[in-house]
Amino acid sequence: xxxxxxxxxxxxxxxxxxxxxxxxxxxxxxxxxxxxxxxxxxxxxxxxxxxxxxxxxxxxxxxxxxxxxxxxxxxxxxxxxxxxxxxxxxxxxxxxxxxxxxxxxxxxxxxxxxxxxxxxxxxxxxxxxxxxxxxxxxxxxxxxxxxxxxxxxxxxxxxxxxxxxxxxxxxxxxxxxxxxxxxxxxxxxxxxxxxxxxxxxxxxxxxxxxxxxxxxxxxxxxxxxxxxxxxxxxxxxxxxxxxxxxxxxxxxxxxxxxxxxxxxxxxxxxxxxxxxxxxxxxxxxxxxxxxxxxxxxxxxxxxxxxxxxxxxxxxxxxxxxxxxxxxxxxxxxxxxxxxxxxxxxxxxxxxxxxxxxxxxxxxxxxxxxxxxxxxxxxxxxxxxxxxxxxxxxxxxxxxxxxxxxxxxxxxxxxxxxxxxxxxxxxxxxxxxxxxxxxxxxxxxxxxxxxxxxxxxxxxxxxxxxxxxxxxxxxxxxxxxxxxxxxxxxxxxxxxxxxxxxxxxxxxxxxxxxxxxxxxxxxxxxxxxxxxxxxxxxxxxxxxxxxxxxxxxxxxxxxxxxxxxxxxxxxxxxxxxxxxxxxxxxxxxxxxxxxxxxxxxxxxxxxxxxxxxxxxxxxxxxxxxxxxxxxxxxxxxxxxxxxxxxxxxxxxxxxxxxxxxxxxxxxxxxxxxxxxxxxxxxxxxxxxxxxxxxxxxxxxxxxxxxxxxxxxxxxxxxxxxxxxxxxxxxxxx
Length: 732
Description:
By secondary structure, the protein is α/β, with parallel strands linked by helices.
C-alpha cells in the first residue's frame, strides 16, 4: 500500500510551484526588457527597504532591496502598476538612480518580512533613522511648548523602558521637526547635559538631563552618522536620514571635543523649509518686480549675499523653482545638496576628490546648461568662471559673503574680476537677513515710545527724500504710527514669535551703476549711485515690516543698524565729547574715556543724577533725566560676546580672562540711565543702572572663575550675559 505523506508532498509541490512561478516571472522580465531577480537568495538592505514605508510598499507591490550611494535596486511585481510607477517617480525626484527588477509575489513577501526585523521606529545602525508617522502625530498632539518637550523627555529618562534611547531619539527629532527647529544642540557640562533647539534662529533651552543618558545618545548618533565610536579627541562630521511622511529629511551632524564630553550639533535639512515660494519670502514690492524680470533673462548673474543662516540657499531654490520649465537645462553645484529639485541636475562638491566649486563650474559649462547655480563664490577662479559663463549666454545664480548688496561689487573686484567687464555680467546684487515673525495669534499693538517713533519717522522721511515709496503700505513720515509687541500663547510656545521672514535690499546694475563700477568704486559710492532705483534698504524694509505688524523694532535692531543711513543729528540730541558717569555728589562729574572698542561712536548723552544732601537719588522732571541707551554700542558688545562664546565652544581651555576684563571695563564706561528710580549704587563713587550692575557682576564672577578653572560652561555663562544685554537693548 502506498503511504501518502501530506506534509512532504505539499512541500515538494510548493517547490515545483515556486520554480514554475520564478521561471514565468523571468520570461516575463525578458519580454518587458527589464532585470529579473529571485530575492530568496539575496540579502535585503534595510536602508533601501525603508526608503518606502511598509504600508505604501505593500499597496504598490514594490520593494527597495539594495542601495549603494544613490543607486537603488527596486523590485516590482508589475512595472505598469500606477502605484508602483508613482513610487519610482518619487524616488527619482529625490535624486535616486533606479535599477528596476521584476520579481514574484513570493520574493516580495520575503522582502516585506524584513520590515518586522526593524525594531520599532528606529534602526540601530548607521545611515537611517526612521520615525513613524504615527509616532510623530502622537507627539504633535502632546507637544505645544518647549515645556511639553521637557516633560516628555524627562518622563522617558525616568522610565524603565528597554528601548529608552530609541524613544528619546524619537522625542528629540519628532519634537524638532514638529517645532520647525533648524538645529539640535546636545552639550555635556560638569555634572549634567543639556538639550537645546534653534527655533526661528534663536537657541532655546529645552531640558537638562544626566550625563549617563547623554553618553547613550552620543553613541547612537555616532552609529547613525557612521562616525568612529571610540574617537573623542578629534572633531567628526557625518550625516544620516530621517524618513518622515515618505520624505527624506537629512541630518548633518557635527561633534567637537570638550572637557566633559563632545558637543553635538545636528542641522535638520527639512525640504519643507526649503520650498518657499517666491511670493512667500516677504520681498518688498519694488524688488519683487525687479527680480521677476531679471530671473527670466537668458543670461546674466544674480548674487545673493549675507551671513550663514540668512536664507540665501532658500532664495536661490525659490528662483530656480520659478524659472524651471522642461525646455531649459538647470544645473547646480552645491555643498551640500539641501533639497532635491525635480527636473534639475544637481551635483555636490567633494573636496577630497578635487571636485570643488571652480572645477564643478568648469564641468557644468560642458553640459550645455541654460541656468547654473553655484553654491558660493569663494575664490578668484570660481568668480572668473562664473563671470565668463554669464557673458556667454548663461544665467548664473550664486552667493557671496558680504554685509550688504553694495559690498558684492568691491568683493568681486577684490577676487580679481575686471571692473570693466563686471557691469556686462552682473545684473543684480541682493543682500538678505532673516528675522522672526510676530505670532499672529497673540501679538498686541501699542503706541511707540517717543524714541521709537522718532527713529521710525526719521527712517521713513529719509527714504522718502531718496525716492522710496512707502505709500502702498499706507505709511508716510507724518501719519500716526502703531506697532506691535510679542505676548506669547500656546500656538507659538509662549515665545511670541512664530516663523521667520526676510529683510532684503538690492542694487540693480543699470547704466548709472555700470558707469560707477567701471571706476573701481567703494561701497559708499555704489550705494549712493543706486539711490535713484527706489529699492528699499534692509533698514527701510525692516521698518515696513514693523509698521505692517509683521515684526518688532527689537528684531530689526538685532540684525541691522537702524540709524546707519540717517543724517547726523536726526534725533536732535547733543553729542557729548566725553562720557559722563554719575557720581556721589551733585557738583562733581567724573569724565571717563570711552573704551577703544566703542571709540568711533560718541552719540551717548549722560547727565548727573539729582541727589539729596545725603547722597540719595531724587526724582526730577523729564527734561532733566532724559537720556538715551547706547543701543549701537550694546549691539557691538553682543557681537563681541558671540565671538567669545564661539572661542569657548571650540576650545574650552582657551584662556579669555583678559578679554572678559576688557569687556567689563567697556560696559562700565557705557553707564547710562533711562529711569532714575531704577538706578542703584554699584560702587561708592558711581551710580549704575540695576541691569548694568547685573551684567558687570556676572562678568566679575566669570572673570574670577575663568582664572581658577577654565571650562566649557564659560560659553554658557557668556551667553546668559549676552541675553541680559539683548534685553537691555530691547528696553532701550
